[in-house]
Structures are given as C-alpha cells and as structure tokens.
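User: I'm new to structure prediction. If I give you an amino acid sequence, what do you actually give back? Let's try with this one:
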Amino acid sequence: MSVHIDIAGLRPEEVAVVPSPLAELGMALHALSEPAHHPGLQGWVTGVTARLDPHLADRMCEADFLWRTTFSDLFLPWAGLPDRRALPGATLAEELDQLDKLSDEQFVDAAMEFSCGTCYGENEPATLSDPETRRRALELAAARGPRQLRFGERLLADPPRIRAWLRQFLRDYDEAFFAEAWSRLRHQLAADARHKTDLLRRRGLAEALAAVSPAITLDEEAARITVDKLGDGRTATGDGGLLLVPTSLGWPHLMVLHRYGWQPVLHYPVGSPELAAPQTLEQLAMRMTALSHPVRMRMCRHLARSAHTTSELAQVHGMTAPEISRHLAVLKKAGLITTRRRGRYVLHQLDVTVVARLGSEFLEGILR
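Assistant: Good question. You get back a string of structure tokens that encode the predicted 3D arrangement of the chain. For your 368 residues, that looks like this:
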C-alpha cells in the first residue's frame, strides 16, 4: 500500500520547496482538535486552549471534520489553481485570496471530502452539480452525525456563504493565536526549505526526497515517487509541478495531496528526530504477524530474559529443534531477535528495544 506520483517529464525547476502559512494554520487546528496525535505539542495545545475565547472554540467545532480526521485540501488551495504551478502565498492573507480563486465546485468537493473520501483522486462528477454524487455525499455525511449533515446541506445550498464563513473563521483564529505562533515557526520552515532547495540543486531530487522522509523513495528509471502509506493512491505532475511543503506541527503525518486535477503536494514534518528511520508498513506488518503466533509469544518470554540456544528452547517448550528453528527464523526475518555465537553454540535473544518501539511505530504508520 502506497501513494505513487508519476513525474515523467518533470523538470528540476518545476520542483519547489515552499512553506505555507495556511497549511500550517490547518495543522494547528488539527493539533488542537486531536492532541493525542501530537504528544510533543501537549504544552503548546494546553496553552492555546486555556486562552482561547469560548465563542471561537465553539465555532471551531462547527466544521472540525475539515481538519480533525481529514486534513482538507482547502488548506492547500494553490495546488488547485488552473496552471498547476502556483506557489503558496507569503502571507496568510495571500493564501486566503488563493482560496477564493478556487471554483465553487472545487471548494465544495474539497470541503465534502470527509463524506466523499472513497472518490478521492478520481475524476468523479462534481458534488455541487451532479444529483447522484450530491445524494451520496449527504448520505455519508448523515452517517457521520447531524453536525456534518447540517454543514453539508448548508454548503451545497449556499457555497458562497460557507466560503465567507470559513475565511472569517480562519482570520479570527489567526488573530487569536496563530499569528504569534507563525512568527516563530516560519523561520524554522524557511530554513528547512532553503536546505531542501539546496539539496535539489546540488544533488538532485532523490537526495532531497530522502531528506524529506525515508518513507519517500524515487524510482528514477520509472520516473515515479512512492510514499509508503497505509492507503493507495496515484497522481501525476503532468504539465504541472511538484510542491514540497514543510510543517513544524505535523509529525507524525506525512501527507500527499493527490486530488484529481490538482498539483501533487508532499506535506512533510520537520524537526522530528523520531522520523530518522521509520519502519516501512511491510516491516511493521511482518513484525506484528511474527509476534501474533502463540508459540512465538511464549518463546519471546524466555528470549526477553536471556539468550538461549535452539536446543534449550526445544526442551523448555516440548518441541523438536527443527520446529523451534522455524519459529526463530520468522522472528529473525522480522528483525525481532539477535544471534551471537559462543563457542560451538548459537545464542538467540529478543531485541527488546525493537519490540518496545512497536507501539509508537504502529501509531506512526497508521497516522503517517
């Protein structure tokens, strides 16, 4: 499972690394709504929440599905502009103007993604104009609760009114807390953008992408970027460009905008040492499968305490040496045990450091 970006014909000058104040504001709203996703931001979230005006906090709940479970593409509006080469604005005001340039159809489809996610990345009929798509969207919104249904109905009935509401809401949140945060964050993001741009120019796209995240790989022969994510998707730069947008508030989320007809975007976290060597989803699944077998779980109980030979494990578990060897091979292939030789004996031991990381790696994998 992964997201692929076809970059055939993409020229080096069509790749840009640019911070986005609107994208960072969206990520700030997400962190406030889902603080459990961002343990490193607990102090910041607590501080902002404590001084937030209650009326503004209530307004945030009206459409929190745009940033709580799904980070809406409305926070990346420049990617949807017609030439597919637009860059994020230097200020929030500029990006809100870019948001205004999206057509009503684009705005509604991006805002209704929370109830039309199954169509994401495909050339589907516009929700605003197609009766069947509209009916399905409202049905799915209703299944997610009355608040989402009311928002969907208002959005489809009067897009300009909802657009004006969202713009004012974002401006109010900027004034309440984000402008202060952005004044600090933008320096780190600008420095990261300069570093990645320098890598692009001096060493090429492959090294720049590797610096963005080890979960991103480039197949230069196939002209394809692959992002290791728990989900499938495909897009292409086509006659447009590729944007890399850093975020200081985003870890562990590594997001790929692959909406049909929009410019592909990699929205990646910076300044997080935890991302130095993330496990691939395939490796994670292999480790969890290896540990799910009852015999191997019992073996791990002994291997966690001390090193054992195959013969010792066979005697303890009442099994033959070949049976134990097969289980050890599964654990070793998954990277869960280490082996060392002592004279003519081979000793096996559980790598408790690797096992201890499984919980955080699982969360990172599914939230990536």
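You can read the tokens as a compact description of the fold. Here is one thing that stands out. The chain has a mean pLDDT of 89.
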